[in-house]
């Protein structure tokens, strides 16, 4: 109980400015949570989703806004060690998790074409389905500031488009459901500091292809890892590089954009030149 209290209190004391205030500011700025919501907070067992769950739980206790939350753990086929780690951390943090079973890892193991993409797509579908079954209107994921910056860069460098990770989305396949990202403005480095300061151990990558990184190693070789390395190098030139990329997605000067697309189709600056 003493350790639980210390971990929780650190979010609003030692890490108040970097975690709690960033979380609450994001919830307000992007209108992520409203009165009457029932949110399925999706807990994968990693540091990001565990912090998200803890922050949402603490906000719920305050009663402003008034909402309900379910802490949803989808087991895609974790080995015994990873499953126990998730359970132990939930108990330590006093998170009343609701775990359900799937065979995603078994299914993905049978394909050699984009297994990570297939796994992510299937996970999202299962989570939406279970959340709806439990009467939720939103699912909350643990994507953070660094994910936003990395996604923006990957889109520009590898897809030839300016596209970012949104703080909330309407589900395309589950009508009436929304996806929200409550720690959208929280930096990964600050999550790691919170984790280290409280001597916490979370799973990181638990699939059968990369179980060697389950307790903090690096997946390596991915486009996201490339972006992390690139941003780290750029930050040596200007410490605000990542913050500028993040802010640029909130500050698009449409008058100086060659072209863009929306639900109505493609548009060119010549249309109104």
List keywords for this structure.
10 helices, Rossmann fold, about 270 residues, about 45% helix, 6-stranded mixed sheet, two-stranded antiparallel sheet
Can you describe this structure?
The chain has ten helices and eight strands. The chain has a single domain (2-216), classed as Rossmann fold. The protein is α/β, with parallel strands linked by helices and 273 residues long. Helix 7 (145-158) packs across helix 10. The protein is globular and about 65 Å long. The strands form two sheets. The protein has a six-stranded mixed sheet with strand order 3-2-1-4-6-5, sandwiched between helices. Strands 7-8 form a two-stranded antiparallel ribbon.
Task: Tell me briefly what this model is.
The protein has 10 helices and 8 strands. The protein is an alpha/beta fold.
Sequence-ordered SSE layout with sheet pairings:
Layout: H1 2-12, H2 16-29, E1 38-42, H3 47-62, E2 68-75, H4 80-92, E3 97-101, H5 104-108, H6 115-133, E4 138-140, H7 145-158, E5 168-170, E6 178-180, H8 188-197, H9 223-237, H10 241-248, E7 259-262, E8 265-268
Parallel strand pairs: 1-2, 1-4, 2-3, 4-6
Antiparallel strand pairs: 5-6, 7-8
Helix pairs in contact: 7-9, 7-10
